[in-house]
Amino acid sequence: MLTPASILITTVLLSLAMVLVLGSLLRAEMAGVREWFTSNLAVIGGLLLLGLRGLVPDFFSIVAANLVLALSTACYYAGCARFLGRPPHWLRLAAGIGALALALTIWLYIDDNIPLRVLATTTYTGIVCVAVAVLLLRHRPSTRRRYNYWFAAALALIFALCQVARGIHFIMLPLPSDPLIFHSTWNMALLIVGAVIMPAMTMVAVMMIHDAMLAAAEDAANHDHMTGALSRKRLETLAREQIANAVKAGRPLSLLIIDLDHFKHINDNHGHAGGDTVLREFVRMTRASLRDSDALGRMGGEEFAVLLPDTDTAGALRIAERLREQTKMQLVIGAFGECRYSISAGVASWRTGETFDRLSMRADRALYTAKSAGRNRVLPDDVQAVDQAMPATV
Ligand SMILES: Nc1nc2c(ncn2[C@@H]2O[C@H](COP(=O)(O)OP(=O)(O)OP(=O)(O)O)[C@@H](O)[C@H]2O)c(=O)[nH]1
């Protein structure tokens, strides 16, 4: 038969399963996981204390049990806040728990009133649940899928509604201090919903954790760890997408392959760390100089590629020449000392029917010519555009 005790045992088992799932994610050291883990531990602790009603003093099975359950809700909020990079507001949460402790003590020892005790706990939990929903909706990462966050917010609101309904239900009861009121059909229904929702919210938290892990893995695969430029793999994928767009829209697309000149000397003179600093500074400056729609990727070592959508050869040559001028002027300063450097670049514009490999091969060929011609210069692969090339005055 369904009794408060059977619901309590089921919730303890579900929360135990959630503790095991979150425990396995603790070593990922993701913000919020520790708080969600503690939240489920607190659910188990609070429910076990509730289950000891009659066996231990009322202080433990009523006051302490409800405070531990309130702590569980507070930890869930703090987990969401930390996960989203927001402040957990521990002081406000603690103040709420303090007020609840006072209310429970008054309505147990001064005026024994079950409905008011229930109303106090449901009010606290309801407020924190609404705060969870607001937090998730307002601070959801805009680059990630909405589904997990909306789902979690909806569950938090349902939980809050159930708490309000349970509080109102108890306030309206005719025999306020009879413990049998816990067995009423309404209370049982609201307890069942309450029992399912906390583990369900934890499952959604796990979905959010997996989503964040996936985002981190995608980011690592798509970016060069040292400079922050796109990885070669990501740039090539992007290039194929942009070629498809260029085909559809009939718009030009150009590619620059850039290589830092005499980079071996930079390493020899300033150490590997000095060379790394030069690479990072080159990427920082180049990104600042390009449009948002352009893409800068590291092809390997000191070689980079820039994809320029909606740009013909003349435009690409102008951009490459501007970059060459800027790098020539750039003084890189670091713990290693000071360093100046230059770049050479090859420019190729996409031709109808051409693959990215072929386009990149032509830009590479132009780069090779620029290097052979003395470095610190920009050259196009397109023979007709040679007139527009602007060899550097070294
Ligand atoms: N510091 C640092 N050096 C790197 C990195 N990747 C490659 N290199 C070094 O870059 C140097 C490239 O040397 P080379 O291929 O001879 O080219 P270069 O000296 O720039 O000469 P040119 O390209 O002909 O002007 C090598 O010494 C590599 O070890 C990196 O991530 N950091």
From TrEMBL:
SUPFAM superfamilies: Nucleotide cyclase. CDD domains: GGDEF (cd01949). The chain crosses the membrane at residues 6-26, 33-53, 59-78, 90-110, 116-137, 149-168, 188-209. Coiled coil: none annotated. It comes from the Bacteria. GO terms for cellular component: plasma membrane. PROSITE patterns: GGDEF. Residues 251-383 form the GGDEF domain. SMART domains: GGDEF (SM00267). It catalyses: 2 GTP = 3',3'-c-di-GMP + 2 diphosphate. One of its GO terms (biological process) is cell adhesion involved in single-species biofilm formation. It holds the Pfam family GGDEF. InterPro entries: Diguanylate_Cyclase, GGDEF_dom, Nucleotide_cyclase, Rev_trsase/Diguanyl_cyclase. Its EC number is 2.7.7.65. GO terms for molecular function: diguanylate cyclase activity. Keywords: Membrane, Transmembrane, Transmembrane helix. It is an enzyme of class 2 (transferase). PANTHER family: DIGUANYLATE CYCLASE DGCM-RELATED (PTHR45138:SF9), REGULATORY COMPONENTS OF SENSORY TRANSDUCTION SYSTEM (PTHR45138). NCBIfam families: GGDEF. This is diguanylate cyclase. It comes from Collimonas arenae.
